[in-house]
Amino acid sequence: MREYFKNIYNALFTIFIGMKITFKHLFVPAVTIQYPEEKPNLPDRARNRLYVNMDDCIGCDQCARACPVSCITIETVKSIPTEDLGKTSNGKKKILHVTQFDIDFAKCCYCQLCVFPCPTECIYMTDIYEFAEIQRDNLIYSFVTLAKEEIKEKKENFTRFEAEKAAKAAAAKSAPAQNSETNK
């Protein structure tokens, strides 16, 4: 019989302990953030979506080489000597046309290793952290500012320049050989 009353006492005691904790938290202000309307304050060094300022990008490919998951794809085309691509915001001269600069955020692990080797500081983490997509292909972001026609034109100009340069080199090589034959 003694055990019967002891079990009743333990049951009521544990209920009262639970109710005490419940009533204690009942009158405390809520900590929950109403997410879509209110955005949480992120720490200063939060790692979120990458952004590339293509006006400063020189196409050096250092960010793609530093990426541990190979989510950055960069293709460049050399500019011909008559073209002036300008300078970046920190004074570096641009010599390459960036024809492809894609980041696959489905692969990205947000490690920020691509940010530090950039000599022009054109790639950096932003405070945007919401970018859910239904299709995986929509997570590949292209940062190129050139249109498809411009990219094709730049590639054709460079191949034409290389062909002219090779033709001049071949002509210069054959000219001394012809001169030595005429001297004999």
Number of helices: 3
Task: Please report which band the strand proportion falls in: under 5%, 5-15%, 15-25%, 25-35%, 35-45% or over 45%.
Answer: 5-15%
Question: Ranges with pLDDT <50 over ≥5 residues?
Answer: none
The Rg value, from CA coordinates, equals 32 Å
Biggest β-sheet: strands ordered side by side in the sheet: 2-3-5
What profile does the largest beta sheet have? 3 strands, antiparallel
Summed over residues and divided by their number, the pLDDT gives a mean of 88
Strands, total number = 5
Structural class by secondary-structure content: alpha+beta
The portion of residues assigned to helices is 25-40%
- Shape by Cα distribution: rod-shaped
| Level-2 CATH architecture of the domain at 52-145 | 2-Layer Sandwich
State the CATH topology of the domain at 52-145.
Answer: Alpha-Beta Plaits
The CATH class assignment of the domain at 52-145 is: Alpha Beta
Distance between the termini: 132 Å
Order of helices and strands: HEHEEEEH
